[in-house]
């Protein structure tokens, strides 16, 4: 057997009482694509942070190309030839794409911009080098992160859920890229919750459960159910059947909405019309960067409509064009934003206080002051019901693993029992056990009469959840397509801007 490129022995790391990694052994051979699998909070991100020098292990050894390696910082890791793309972005919002990349990769702006364009074309990671990062969607920001990493020519490339916001076309392209990199002598360490992807791209896998290695295997030799069982320690539940329902009252109606943002990098919206009724889930499909962020901000009330456009958005039958976000919430609207650390939660605050952010109407305030007992009980309940793995409600939101924080935010909004729930990327970063629990919960709420609007880039998720789907492309929304009469390829055609010849369009 060839000597491993990277070899870990007995690596342990604790955060206070939490033993995030315990005695981890792992070998990454040269020219391999190696998956790290595990539930939310299993310790995957911690492990790769140790390999990338973001954190230092409490004990254990890291061998790199046969010699011991001790990394004090990511800069040292990069110099050694280890590159990483994070799950949470580390870009400066006020800088352009090329300026961000220049912080890590030396070179003239014009040359770097050219390389960014070339990499973008080659890998399906197109992004304007001169766009400001604050104007980019989550998906586009991730593209920048991947490009930045590839520009340092790493020997080991660590990718923390790289495909979670990529459109299906780009996932295939990215996989081609990764295979080409592997064949050229680069190893890839790949964290993903998408077991099919792991089977498609990885030749080795290490499974973590509760901070320990529970197995090393070849993922191509196991089916998805097997892998899921090894990961979560039990069988997956079946999807929840949606009951047939005739449409109830209109809870959200958008009629011919046009929107020209002031920001030159934002996507203008034109002629947006949609209706979500009680007892119905409507999905918005599409590749990120096609107006999702702008539409979400208009629905939530974060962006104010210009005066002449104020009769275009109705919630619970009421024109909400002139109402702010808090007033819309008082009508029975709840919202899970796609950007969970920026908008969904305040990382430095405890879960109790994060619960309070939107759930304060549930008697969590008394005479304008926090009712500590009720607020803690609410956070506790959310943690219990949504299986949020954390030591307790006083934990800072930023200390939760990505998937666990997402479960908390989705749980918090659902517990408000809204009449209209709007969820952007409901299961982004959530492991398959928890994702299926969230989807089952959404379908149950729909069956009980809630109106639900979902934005997701994952077609499979939309097909599992939604009664009908509309596709957002270039700021325009397709007509609604009844999910059970529609094939994914049809949605795919709308996603890239082609018109569907099919007549399966709702009146
Ligand atoms: N900075 C920190 N402070 C305290 N606890 C932390 C910190 N970082 C991680 N943890 C805890 O360590 C454990 C492992 O977290 P980690 O982020 O490595 O999990 P993960 O497998 O990557 O999860 P996910 O799939 O949700 O991203 C979790 O219990 C998490 O709450």
Automatic annotation (TrEMBL):
Spell out the protein name for this chain: ABC transporter
CDD domains from the entry? ABC_Carb_Monos_I (cd03216), ABC_Carb_Monos_II (cd03215)
| GO MF annotation list | ATP binding; ATP hydrolysis activity
Q: Where is the ABC transporter domain?
A: 6-235, 252-499
Q: Family membership, please give it.
A: Belongs to the ABC transporter superfamily.
Upper taxonomic lineage? Bacteria, Pseudomonadati, Pseudomonadota, Alphaproteobacteria, Hyphomicrobiales
Instruction: State the organism of origin.
Output: Paramesorhizobium deserti
Q: Which domain of life is it from?
A: Bacteria
SUPFAM superfamilies documented for this protein: P-loop containing nucleoside triphosphate hydrolases
Query: What Pfam families is this protein classified in?
Result: ABC_tran
InterPro entries (UniProt xref): AAA+_ATPase (IPR003593), ABC_carbohydrate_import_ATPase (IPR050107), ABC_transporter-like_ATP-bd (IPR003439), ABC_transporter-like_CS (IPR017871), P-loop_NTPase (IPR027417)
This protein's UniProt keywords? ATP-binding, Nucleotide-binding
Nucleotide-binding as UniProt keyword: yes
């Amino acid at each position: 057997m060839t000597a491993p490129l990277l070899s870990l022995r007995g690596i342990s790391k604790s955060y206070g009482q939490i033993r995030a990694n315990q005695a981890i052994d792992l070998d990454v051979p040269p020219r391999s694509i190696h998956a790290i699998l595990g539930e939310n909070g299993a310790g995957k991100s911690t492990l790769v942070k140790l390999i990338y020098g973001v954190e230092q292990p409490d004990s254990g050894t890291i061998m790199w190309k046969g010699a011991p390696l001790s990394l004090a910082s990511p800069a040292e890791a990069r110099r050694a030839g280890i590159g990483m793309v994070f799950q949470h972005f580390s870009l400066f919002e006020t800088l352009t794409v090329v300026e961000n990349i220049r912080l890590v990769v030396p070179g003239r702006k014009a040359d770097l911009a050219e390389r960014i364009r070339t990499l973008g074309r080659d890998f399906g990671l197109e992004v304007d080098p001169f766009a400001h990062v604050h104007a980019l969607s989550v998906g586009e920001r991730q593209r920048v992160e991947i490009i930045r990493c590839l520009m340092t020519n790493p020997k080991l490339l660590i990718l923390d859920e790289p495909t979670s916001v990529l459109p299906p076309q780009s996932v295939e392209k990215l996989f081609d890229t990764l295979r080409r990199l592997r064949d050229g002598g680069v190893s890839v360490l790949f964290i993903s919750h998408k077991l099919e992807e792991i089977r498609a791209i990885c030749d080795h896998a290490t499974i973590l459960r509760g901070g320990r290695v529970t197995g090393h295997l070849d993922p191509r030799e196991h089916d998805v159910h097997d892998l899921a069982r090894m990961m979560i320690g039990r069988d997956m539940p079946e999807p929840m059947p949606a009951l047939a329902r005739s449409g109830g009252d209109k809870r959200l109606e958008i009629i011919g909405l046009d929107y020209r943002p002031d920001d030159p990098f934002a996507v203008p919206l034109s002629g947006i019309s949609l209706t979500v009724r009680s007892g119905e889930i409507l999905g918005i499909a599409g590749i990120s960067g096609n107006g999702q962020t702008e539409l979400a901000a208009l629905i939530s009330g974060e962006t104010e409509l210009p005066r002449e456009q104020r009769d275009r958005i109705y919630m619970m039958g009421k024109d909400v064009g002139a109402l702010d976000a808090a007033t819309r919430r008082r009508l029975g609207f709840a919202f899970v934003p796609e950007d969970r650390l920026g908008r969904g939660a305040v990382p430095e605050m405890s879960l109790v206080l994060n619960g309070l952010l939107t759930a304060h109407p549930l008697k969590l305030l008394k005479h304008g002051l926090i009712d500590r007992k009720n607020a803690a009980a609410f956070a506790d309940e959310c943690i219990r019901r949504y299986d949020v793995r954390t030591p307790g409600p006083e934990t800072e939101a930023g200390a939760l693993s990505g998937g666990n924080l997402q479960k908390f935010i989705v749980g918090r909004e659902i517990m408000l029992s809204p009449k209209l729930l709007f969820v952007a990327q409901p299961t982004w970063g959530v492991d398959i056990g928890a994702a299926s629990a969230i989807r089952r919960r959404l379908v149950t709420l729909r069956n009980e009469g809630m109106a639900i609007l979902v934005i997701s880039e994952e077609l499979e998720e939309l097909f599992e959840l939604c009664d009908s789907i509309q596709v957002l492309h270039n700021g325009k929304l397709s007509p609604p397509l009844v999910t059970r009469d529609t094939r994914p390829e049809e949605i795919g055609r709308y996603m890239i801007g082609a018109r569907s010849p099919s007549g399966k369009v709702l009146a």
